[in-house]
Specification:
This protein has 297 residues and is mainly α. Helices cover 72% and strands 1% of the residues.
Length: 297
């Protein structure tokens, strides 16, 4: 330890800082970087969990891009993203904007909105699946039948199955986004609003010229987080279409469900790894694109 005694105080601080950081860095590398690199390597191999790994080069990727099911799943994944993200953000902002002005039972109402986010995704998916069942089981179809409206094919229609699954997915994440929006609204200095009222500025101008621009960091955070969530959607689809995973004619199947089935039903781990790498590239590209578009200029 003679070398340690010859160090300056600043150098000793650096040594101790890296000593304490080494364990979490090592842990992060083991649980993050190693599995990622292993998945990328596996995507160039063929492996069924029992035999030895065999190098096949780009064969898994050629197979993937020639698979019509993949392109259907690819389209579904982006439908979840392009519809779910803006709808959830607009709804959560509207609720947060008005809830921020409520004083009576404010905490209770906020907790009620946040409750679905704390509920198990599996339990929630099965509850909504019960809602969608035909007469005499389903809540929604029973309500429609009571007023003489024919049954609606929520989960059995290639047209309506995906929106039917997207609805509870949006509802489940609404509470978290509301809380984040409310935190962003509370962080805006009241002096901006006071000055606007003194100048006689209307509420719509205040919203577009003050509130939304100052909420930009919050919006960017929620856009990226929500987009990642919808690109990785799995629980709702898997549990609401258990008898026919992915819905009728794969109309609701996202990429994560395709990866799950390839890996744990077909045991084609190399092909599943190739799908995982494609999903990673999509997530990275979408996140970086959003950060670039919404950056401060």
């Amino acid at each position: 330890m003679g070398w340690y005694a010859n160090l300056t105080i600043k150098q000793k601080q650096v040594v101790w800082a890296w000593t304490f950081l080494s364990l979490p860095i090592l842990f992060y590398c083991v649980i993050r970087f190693y599995p990622t690199l292993n998945a990328i390597t596996l995507s160039f191999q063929e492996w069924n969990l029992l035999s030895d790994r065999e190098w096949v080069g780009l064969e898994n990727y050629f197979k993937l891009f020639a698979d019509p099911v993949f392109w259907k799943v690819f389209k579904n994944t982006f439908v979840y993203l392009l519809i779910g993200t803006p709808v959830s953000l607009v709804l959560s902002f509207v609720v947060a904007y008005h809830l921020d002005k409520v004083r009576f039972m404010h905490g209770t109402i906020r907790a009620l909105y946040f409750l679905p986010f704390m509920t198990s995704a599996v339990a929630m998916a099965w509850l909504w699946r019960w809602f969608y069942q035909p007469v005499p089981i389903g809540l929604f179809n029973n309500a429609l039948a009571s007023v003489g409206i024919p049954q609606f094919p929520f989960l059995s229609s290639t047209t309506w199955a995906l929106p039917s699954i997207l609805a509870p997915a949006v509802w489940a994440g609404l509470g978290f986004q509301i809380i984040i929006f409310m935190a962003g609204l509370r962080a805006i200095p009241q002096t901006y609003y006071e000055a606007a009222h003194i100048d006689g500025v209307g509420p719509w101008t205040i919203l577009w010229r003050i509130t939304l621009p100052l909420l930009k960091p919050t919006i960017v955070f929620l856009v990226v987080l929500s987009s990642i969530g919808f690109l990785r959607i799995f629980d709702q689809v898997f549990n609401m279409t258990t008898n026919n995973p992915g819905g009728p004619l794969n109309s609701t199947k996202p990429l994560v469900l395709m990866i799950y089935e390839t890996a744990f039903s077909s045991f084609d781990m190399g092909y599943a790894a190739a799908q995982t790498v494609v999903l990673f590239v999509i997530l990275l590209a979408v996140s970086l694109t959003q950060l670039y578009i919404m950056r401060d200029k």
